Amino acid sequence: MRHEARMHAESGEWRRRFAEEARSERPGLALLCLLIGAEADPGLDEAGIDAAEIELDRLAGLLPFRPGGPRAWAQAMAELLGESCGFEGTPGDYQRLESSLLHEVLRRRRGLPILLSVVWMEVARRAGAPVYGVALPGHFVVGFGPRDDQVLADPFDGGRLLTGQDAELLVAGTAGAGVQPSMLTPADPLNIVQRILNNIRAWAAARPERSEVALWALDLSLLLPAHPARLRYERAQLLVQRGDFLGGAAELEEYADVVTAVEPTTADRVRQQARAARSMLN
After folding, report:
1. What is the number of domains present in the chain?
2. pLDDT in tens, 5-54
3. Is 253 found in the same domain as 162?
4. Could you give the C-alpha distances from 188 to 29, 62, 118, 194, in angstroms and in order?
5. Which residues of 52-84 are buried (b: 16+ CB within 10 A; e: fewer)?
6. In this structure, are 164 and 251 located in the same domain?
7. What are the b/e assignments for 225-253, b being 16+ CB within 10 Å?
């Protein structure tokens, strides 16, 4: 019991820091990702978070000093992280929760495209590169330089530099359409964090026995300054599925109150679900 109480207290502190960082003027992408890791991994403590930040600093220190324009930066990053350090992804990484946790990606040098891109962005940013994330449909990559001189690299493929045709093929494979200019704009750090949490929820959804992962991922999503109201509905449903009928019913009723003015039919249906959840106690 004492161990569980300590873990609960630590989780509360991580969440407080997560909410505080997410609402700061310039949210730290690496720290937010590491706080997600602390929620997932009870073994990740303050020292572990510091060690991950130090590793990002160390990698940045291995880059040549300001190698040149966007293409030179992208090539230097590919040589360091892709070739020398072996950061890349494989299809099997989609089956592992660790692939969405920054501290594990730094340790294993494997991960999902978006987490490998976070490593690239954080290392390149520390070295002074003009770097940002690019959220192509279904596949996250990294961009260097201004739009009229943009260079894209795919960290999941070891940092392969992408031609315009490469980007078209990536997008066509998932969206069934060509690349739109809006797809190539820098991704906001908080949107990146939300996408990571969405990936974690999708991983958990395919594994009903890991519903506790879906729950904390939802809880963290709700701490972000902007989030879809529907997440509250999903959380309420998850509580009911986990056997917390009273808690789920209460949250269903709160959600119904929020949407009743704009979607009265939906609100009525959700209130019926709340009553059904309460009846399961009888």
Report:
1. 2
2. 455 557 789 999 999 999 999 999 999 999 999 999 999 999 999 999 99
3. no
4. 10, 27, 12, 10
5. bbebbeebbeebeeebeebbbbbbbbbebbbee
6. no
7. eebeeebbbbbbbbbbeeebbeebbbbbb
